[in-house]
Amino acid sequence: MKKYLAERPWIWVVVSFVVLIGALASFVTTAVKNMPETVSLTGGVERANH
Q1: Phi and psi for 8 in degrees, rounded to 5?
Q2: d(Cα 47, Cα 3) in Å, to the nearest integer?
Q3: pLDDT by residue (tens digit) across 21-35?
Q4: DSSP class of residue 22?
Q5: Can you spell out the DSSP letters for the chain?
Q6: Measuring CA to CA, which residue among 32, 34, 14 is closest to residue 22?
Q7: DSSP label at 35?
Q8: Which domain of life is it from (predicted)?
């Protein structure tokens, strides 16, 4: 197995790329699931200096 991978170093590049894409996908999925609440900038509580 070591000789197979040593003769084909491009496989390491492909594996690294797949790992990178997987990490990016999991990061985006986590970020979307844990979005902060949206805060309305209009309406709501009146300003104190009115």
Answers
A1: -130, 75
A2: 72
A3: 999 999 999 999 999
A4: H
A5: -HHHHHH-THHHHHHHHHHHHHHHHHHHHHHHHTPPPP--SSSSSPPTT-
A6: 14
A7: P
A8: Bacteria
